[in-house]
Every structure is written in structure tokens, then in C-alpha cells.
Amino acid sequence: MIFSEPIVNSVTWVTSLTHGLQPTLLATATEAENAPIVLTGVLLSLVVIYLASKIGGELSRMMDLPPVLGELLGGVVVGASALHLVVFPDSGAIASDSLIMTILQFINNLTPDSVTSIFQSQSEAISILAELGVIILLFEIGLESDLKELTKVGYQAAVVAFVGVTVPFAAGTAGLMFFFHTPAIPAIFAGAALTATSIGITSKVLSELGQLKSREGQIIVGAAVIDDILGIIVLAVVASLAKTGEVDVFNVIYLIVSATVFLIGSILLGKFFNQSFVAVANKLQTRGNLVIPAFIFAFFMAFLGNAIHLEAILGAFAAGLVLDETDKRKELDQQVKPIADILVPIFFVTVGAKVDLGVLNPIVPENREGLIIATFLIVVAIIGKVVTGWSVFGQAGINRLAVGVGMIPRGEVGLVFAGIGAASGVLDKPLQAAMIIMVILTTFLAPPLLRFAFKQSVEPQETIEPADVIG
Amino acid sequence: MIFSEPIVNSVTWVTSLTHGLQPTLLATATEAENAPIVLTGVLLSLVVIYLASKIGGELSRMMDLPPVLGELLGGVVVGASALHLVVFPDSGAIASDSLIMTILQFINNLTPDSVTSIFQSQSEAISILAELGVIILLFEIGLESDLKELTKVGYQAAVVAFVGVTVPFAAGTAGLMFFFHTPAIPAIFAGAALTATSIGITSKVLSELGQLKSREGQIIVGAAVIDDILGIIVLAVVASLAKTGEVDVFNVIYLIVSATVFLIGSILLGKFFNQSFVAVANKLQTRGNLVIPAFIFAFFMAFLGNAIHLEAILGAFAAGLVLDETDKRKELDQQVKPIADILVPIFFVTVGAKVDLGVLNPIVPENREGLIIATFLIVVAIIGKVVTGWSVFGQAGINRLAVGVGMIPRGEVGLVFAGIGAASGVLDKPLQAAMIIMVILTTFLAPPLLRFAFKQSVEPQETIEPADVIG
Q: Where are the coiled-coil regions (chains A, B) (predicted)?
């Protein structure tokens, strides 16, 4: 029966119950019963996430650090490392680990089975919101990037990305095999994790520093995009190596070709699409006449990116680049801002929340071997990316340190490698822990380092936009 | 193993995989594997939903009808009645009914089990987005409403709500028992379904007509809010009647007291909160300095509304009313608009998508009895609400027809009654079908009728804001 409780909640019921003519409706009665509680959990999680992001972001700014660092740390505080308010079943948490679930259980007097199912649904909802957050972030970054500028620095970006992938990969794999006698496949996996660059974190910091449109900023963003594509390819190679001991050459060629065709194709086709977009937006007269067509385009491109087994964020970034070329740019930018403001923090806080700083505790004996390997990986991770700055050619007076430092954060992409490594079973515990520590430290060190690097700049900045810092 | 496919998608992986130190990570490998496909499904659903809302909304406007009607009809076209692009498992659909799932299955070569699980997760995500949409809609309506105006018309609104609940309930229940020899409990259930007013649809239409701040508009919104509270109470009474044959008096008193305390309490406390809100928003200097604190407040109030077994939308509406009293009103209004623009259509399109117009087909013999009962219910539904206009007192020159017509749409609240009725097992098929037809027709007729009623207005409108019509 649908009423085991005097809970009557029309709006939340509606999405779970409808006309009920189908015979299967009763079978989903339990889920329908839980639906308002899932919404309660999502709302409470969002309140916690927003509080964490704002308190963290503001404290970070007061200390003259980039706000996104505070958002990540805010996530760490409310997440698996400390308060256990925002935890996820796919990081191994169960419902009773979640403080929010404990609160919901107390309010609604739930059975353990219901709690597990509500926890799962609520976590999935927050994850989807976080994913929409990073898609919109990349769309916004695309909107703020200048296609002409990006094309101008295209070669440099490609070289930086290539160096930033090969140097850490080679040094990391060889070093692990030589110094730590790690077998080849786990060493290659760890080396692959060193190649990642978090385009989300790096571009957010650049935007906060007002450096997104500087030459350095554009090289970093371009290189991070190319790095993302190279990362997809490296990951595919390594994963098939780990699984079968062989490399699926066809798949590697497929990924290289599809990524290139997708990015270049969408930008070329975009020139034609531009005209129609402006024409359509001018004709529409109901609310959302600009932002809805833009989101249709962005989400469709993100869908395409995912559908051809690349990445949703690549599609969103390409969509932003294309729409940046229209007359509607300014207006669209202004309307996307508040949407990004409420969705992007969900991404950063959940990235922080999923990290378990427990692996950093040297008092726990099994952490120690990992900490030693981690120290090695961190050194390789930083040096391997910093050197990329010196691979930039033909750009007199460029801040090479800033370019190199901008490539350091591994962020969510590094976590992916670590996660897939853990699931593949080829990594032992110390190496897993070391990879995670490397990802955490490069992610958290990069924002202050990047700020420092730009302060050391020998030339005046081309663009400083306070409007980018204060929304 | 996590790689059964050459799908490598870093951003979507990240939300499903993390450091992987927990032993349970492998157990969730299947879900992690599906996570990027769920996102693909959500993105494609959003593209379809936005296209449906914009095409429907614009066509509606061209025919001089309120855009929200077109959004609902757009939902009908893409939903269970026609294209089967946006369908929901809790309306009895299975994965193979969903065209989007068929597309995903084709792209990713999925097993039937995976498809079922992906369909479930994707539908839950869209439902949560729709729920956030109606929460933000009510927050925006609260922001656009004037607390002083609402208090001025408070008594009238209460009378209108009371008449609009008792007349259709009494006439519907008595008529069904007298003319159709329906047993008491199902008759009471159907009568209860007649009491609902969809605050979402009615206030959206008012806003689109630029009538939200007119006297009529404020009475309708006030009455719809009170009606929502009365609806919760009626639903609780009827549901406990259907279940046990008795009324749980304690629960009824609890709901009445908690709803009153919640709404009045939050508005009174809001006067103090106002000051701190402005002070905090002025101090914050990172992006989202205004919109994030506002959403923390709105989502917390919505959470509270849900947690005390009332409704999330009541909390969001109260939050909007409170923040409307601050100096930041204009700025906040402007920033909430694009957020509402992308989330609210998801709500209206899914309401339309969940409706199955198949029950209206008179060629199917089992629909006929329902159609006859439906005709009776529709007459009661319209007359029972239109008379409420004549219960307004002490307001010379008020457009009584507009007030009455504004109360007609049953919308999502009516669907809830129908859904709970179906799940309770007390309603036979013809009565179920009749209730659904009544909800569909009152929902779709109300917007054009309301527009007509306002055109018949004998006095000039107080407020017409084209800015409300074109975002």
C-alpha cells in the first residue's frame, strides 16, 4: 500500500505516481513511497554542498587563494574525510555512513531496505547534477574562450599537451619499475594516471585569476583539451593492456580519429550553425528564448560526445566555442552565469567529498609504503608538467612557469585513472593509495601555485577582468 | 570487470569511481559502468524536453495562448501518448517503451538488465530535475508576489480556497453516488480529486499574462496556496479512509497546525532573516554571492516543508516571499530567471509526458463508461471552481470570472489524487479513467479560459509587465 506513513506530498508524489492505469503501478509503489524522501535528501545535500562551497570559497579568497580551492576543501570537510554529510555508495560508502541518511531515517522512521534504496537514488541524483555542473562549466569556458586566439596558440598547445603526457608517463613508469620494482602493467597504469590534466580545475582557476584570455591561459586551456583527448586514448590503451595483455589497435585509431573529427568538425559546422542560432533566438518570444536554444545545442553536443564514446565535456566546450562567435555572446554569457553559479559548485564539492584524506595519515602503518611511493609520484607529477612550459616556442616573453604549473592539477581525471586501476585489480594497495595521494596533492597545490606563477609574471597581463572574479 | 566496452569517459567515470580503497568498489562496478550511459540518456532527454517546450511554447504564443499550455502539449507529444521519447517507469512504462532507451541500446549494445537499470536511473534523474523545477518556479512566484498585497487579500483568498474545496467535493461526491451509484469511498476519493488547484500552472499563466500582481492574480495565488494546504489535509483524510475505513484525527490536526505554523512562522521569522541575508550577500565576494545564499535559504525551506510532511513547494514559496522584501529583490529576480528558464520547462513537459491521452479514445469500448463519468466530473470541476469568484467580498469591480477560472486547473495535484486512488485499489477502471480525463481537460482548458476571462475584464489592468512575458 502506498500509505504506510501519514506522508502526503503532492508535488513529489506527482513525479512518482500518475494515472495508474497500468497494472505495474503497484509494483513501483515502494519507489513511489520513497520519492518524496529522495527529494528531501537531495534538497538537504544541496544545502550542505552550497554552504560548503560558499564558506570554503570565501575563506579561500580572504587568504588570497583561488575560491575553487576552498570549494574543493569544503567538499573534503563535508565528505568522506570528515563530516560524512555528502558520501557516495560508489566510493564504498553505505547508507549508514551518511549523516544525511541518518537524519532522514530519524525523521521518517525508515526501514533499512528503504534507506539503502533512498541513499542510492539520492546519490545518483547528486552525481547527475555534478555532471551537469561540469558540462555547464566547460560550456561557459568555451563561451569565454576565443576561437581565434585558441587557433593562434593551437600548435603550442598541442606541443605542451604532448610533452605533458609523454614526460610524466615515461618518467613515472620507468621510475616505479627501477626504484620500486613494480611490475610493468601496474607501473604503466600509474604512469598513465600521471598524464591527466583537470581542465575543469585549471580553467576555473584561470578564470578566477582573470587569466583565461591571456596567451598563457589560452595555451593551458587548449593543451588541457588536447590532453583530455590524449588521456582518453592512453586510458583505452592501458585498460585493454590490463585486461587482455594486448592493445586494441583498432580502438585506439577509432578514438584518435573520432576525437579529431568531432572537435574540428563541430567548429567548422558551427560557422553555419551560428547564423541559424541567432536567427532562431531573434524569432523566439517566450521566456528562455536565448538560453534554451543554447542549452539544446550544448546538451546535444555533450550527448554526441558521450554517444561516440568520447566525453560530454568536450561537446559542451565545442558548443561554447561555436556560440562565442555569435552576436548573442554577451547576453548569453550573462544568462549562463547564474546557472553555472548554482550547478558548478556541486561538481567541485563532490570531487572534494569523494576524496578520503585518511590515506594521508602516516600513523596507520599500511599507509607508509604508499606515502613513500606517493612522494616519488608527486615529484614526477609536478616536474613532468612544469617542464611543458619550456616546450612553448615562438612566444617571446611568455610566462613559461605559469603554463607548466597550469597543467599540474590531475583532479577528476586523475581520480578516474585511480578508480579504474582499483577496479581492474592490477594495482596493489600501496600503489593505489600513492596514486590517490598524488591526485589530491596536485589538485590542491595547483591553484595556489598557479596564482604564485602569475604573480611572478615578467610582463603586464593582457586581460584582467574583475567581472570574472566577482560574478 | 569495469571494461566490457571500449567506453572511456573521464568526467562521467569520476562521479562513479573514486579512490577505490574500499572493498565494495568492485560490487558497484556495474553501476559505475552504466553511469556514463545514464548521463547520455539524461542529456538526450533534456534535449527532447527543451525542444518540446520551446516548439510548444512558441506555437502556443503564436496562437495567442499562454506558452505553458504549449509546454504541456509538447510534453504530451514527446511522452506516453505519442512519441514515447520521455516516459517513466512509475507510470508503468518499461525500458523497451522508451525510444531514448532504444537509441542508447543501439549505440552501446547493452544487455536487457543494464537497459532496465539505466532507464530507472535516468528517469529518477529527470524526475528530480522536474521537482527542482517546480521548487524554483514557486520560489520565483514567491519573489514576484508581494507579501503586503497577499496579506491584503488574505481573507478573500481563504474564502475562495474554502469554497473551491467544499463545492466541488460535495457536488462531485453526491453526484457520483446519486447519478452513477458509485459506492461512498470511491465517490469521496473522486470528490477529493476535484478539490485540487495546480498552483504551478495557474501562477505561470498569470505571470505570462502579466496578471500576477493584479488583485485577481494575488487572490488566485493566495487561494491556490491555501488550497494546496487544504488539499494535503483532504488527501490525508481520504487516504486513511480508503485504507482503514476510519479517519486519523490526530494526523489531520497535525497537518492543519503544522501548515499554519510553518507558513506564518517562516514569514514572521523572515523579517529578521531578511537583514542578515542582505548583510551576508553584501559581504560575499566570490561568484554566486547573491544567488547561492538565496538558494541555500530556498532549498532549506523546501527541505523543511518536506521534512515536516508538508510540501517542498510551500517552503520554496515562503522563501521567495521573504526574500521579496529585501533590497536585493530586483537583482535576485534577474539572476533566478535564467535558472528558472532551464529548470521549469522540465516540470511542465514531464507533467504532459506522463499523461496518456489514450484514455480519451471513444473507439476503445472500455473508455466509454469513463468518458460519460468524465463529462460529469468536468462540469462539476469547472462550475465548482468558477463559483468561487462570486465568494469574493468587499472588492468592487473585481473580475470574478477570472478569479474563478484561475482556480480550475488540477494539473499535477489532480494527477496525484488519481495516482494514489489507483494504487489504493478502491477505484474501478472507468472512474480512474474519468478522473484522469477531468485532470487533463481542466489543466489544458484553464490557460485559454484564463486568458479569455482577463480579456473580458471591465477595468483596466493594474500591472502589465511585458518583461514577465519575454524573459
A: none
